[in-house]
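haha ok so turns out i had the wrong file open the whole time. this is the CORRECT one, sorry everyone. sequence first:
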Amino acid sequence: MKWALFFVSVCAASAAGLYFLMIDMPGASYSAGIPSPTSEQTAAALRMRNSVKVLTEDIGERSVRVPENLAKASAWLNHEFAAMGYRVTRQSFKTDSSELSMFDVPCENIIAEKVGTSLPAEILIVGAHYDSLAGTVGADDNASGVAAVLELARRFAKSDMQRTVRFAAFVNEEPPFFRSKYMGSLRYAEKLKGQRENVVGMLSVETIGFYSEEPNSQDYPDPFSFIYPDKGNFIGIVGDLSSRSFVREVVRTFRLTAQIPSQAGAIFSFVPGIGSSDHWAFWQYDYPGVMVTDTAPYRYPHYHRKTDTTDKLNFAQMALVVDGLESVIQELAGETQ
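then structure:
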């Protein structure tokens, strides 16, 4: 009996410790109901809708299977960032894809930089991948994330920040290149490490457009369904244990101002979905990174399907996510005006 009690006590203590380590996050999730949009939020939602429309309808599928569309997307992104006044650079390389019978396909990461005023060597990266899975136009995955990064870049275009901020559009996040040497964000993170650049954190904006108030609309990998809510009405902020301090800082600041529910965690990296975006690439080079996401396949019925189109997205709620991320960037980068 004593050994049984001891075993139960150890298990309970371990569970409590893991909860504190991975799940317990600062601040409280917003719970007052979705507010009526302000004129600024309505305008932001319209701009993001237009960005998603360009990527999904005007350009279409953005994969190495259609290299001319990848080129159109990178050129458009370059133009958009430059028009805001950013210094834009391109990281170019060629991709071999035996799986798609495509070889020597030109690919580019697009990077827009705002150099910090007092801490220019400390770099915050805000990024999203602009490619889509072959055969899809990828409205949520991940034109939604790109639209948010563009909107955030627009908001900070005239600001001075203590730290350097780079707004990035990455290529080749989708299969067959995910976690391969042709993954755009991995190429970029490798370059930064080789140059010994000091990346203080990376925010990966990944599939942020779909929300539901229906019970049981949200799923999770086991055993997290016992911890998190069953309604897919929140934005997720997740990282691995090595990024725990950064995750907590992002969550704390996001929850101070955001008017949308949020759930968060610093979880073991082997848990399915925790590393499923460009932040994973930065983990490989010991840079802290988090993913901001609607949880994609755990909620969105059109994930990686041809039906992932603009009409499925909730741009008003995307605007609320961007408002929260604006506050995060202001805090992390040290906005001075």
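The helical segments are 2-23, 39-59, 67-83, 139-156, 184-194, 244-257, 279-283, 315-333.
again sry for the mixup
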